[in-house]
Fold this sequence. Notes:
The protein has three domains: 2-19 and 252-321 and 330-373, no CATH class; 26-34 and 158-246, Immunoglobulin-like; 37-155, Sandwich (Jelly Rolls). It has no helices and 28 strands. It has strands at 2-4, 8-11, 26-32, 37-49, 58-64, 70-84, 88-94, 97-106, 114-121, 130-138, 145-155, 159-165, 173-179, 192-198, 209-215, 217-218, 225-231, 240-246, 266-271, 273-275, 291-293, 303-309, 326-329, 336-337, 340-343, 348-351, 356-357, 370-373. The strands form nine sheets. The chain has a five-stranded mixed β-sheet, with no helix packed on it. Strands 1-2-22-19 form a four-stranded antiparallel β-sheet, with no helix packed on it. A four-stranded antiparallel β-sheet has the order 4-11-6-9, with no helix packed on it. The termini are close together.
Amino acid sequence: MEKCKKKNLKICVWAFLLFGITFLLLNCISAVEQPSPQFSKIFFNPFYIGSSVKNVDIPFTLYVYPVDKIKNVTSAVINFDVWMNPSVNFTLLVNGQSCNNPFYYISNHYASAGKTTINFDCGNVIKSAGTYSVILKSNEDIGALVGWLDLNYINNPKGTMAISGTEYSPDDPATIFLQLKDAEGLPVTNGVCYVDMWYPLSINGTHPYTLIDAPMMKAEGDDGLYYYDFIAPSTLGVYMLSSKCVYALDSGFCYSMDGYETDRPNRTAVQGTFAGDTIFLNDFEDWIYTSCASTGGGTKSCEAYYDFNLSANWDNLTNFSYMNLYYMGEASAKINISFYFWNWTSSSWVLLPNSLIFAGLSSVPLGIGDFVSN
């Protein structure tokens, strides 16, 4: 079960599972499209103003959201085509801040009545994607005007990922892995990756799943490598793979995985006898997990929930965009596990969509292979 509130996260798990698989190995390498210089002409909202009187703010909204994203802005020049007659001095504010040239003055000594163009270098203010408030003001009455932004930027395209394969014999130890990189080609070390795998063509002409959203473990180091280990299946053939990853600009575990964390989760057992330190709930390398021996009469079960203190590692709890929960383990029997989170507003448990039925292929657990994610 999982229980969430502003400062605490509770999760309930039970233990033991066994899963035997077989396979023809694959490795996944992530590639990216390299950032490149781009230009975009972005018109203001509103696009056109019929006229304006002197010393009155003319408000505009500027939406800067190129589809290929912005890595950095190289120049941002705001332009206005304006109809005017006398000498006019224009001032401009972007998000309340002056641009590199805070005003643009046109003298009728040099410019006759008619249309002219004024320009403001606002690269000091427009540095990234976003919605900007623009205010133009003139010290004389003016006629119609049209405004736009000439934006030069280095884009930040999305990365792509390709999967290739390597052969294994049945019952060989096998590894699926990928390297996750961001749009700048840098390894992503705080990702969450899953892999799907399909069996070779069956006698009824289909490719059934053998893995669905199998959570991949992060390899040691900072190379952005994620892997899934298992035993190669006995069915020979080509096993198709699909992987997906997500990551945030700032993310992390509710507590560290070094085994020395003092703010470890607090476990409350409801049924069953639990063993193992709760610090190892997040320890993938040592294979030491919390476990439970089920108790009861005809129907045996284990149940517990865990309190995580989110404020121990994050000062600001108002800026969370998502949380990932996944469970891996093994069981000595074909038992079922369900996950819940606690809704503090309604004071009730909410069942998460994915549950897990353990394979239970051995009386003695041999290695982690069953999994579920939410």
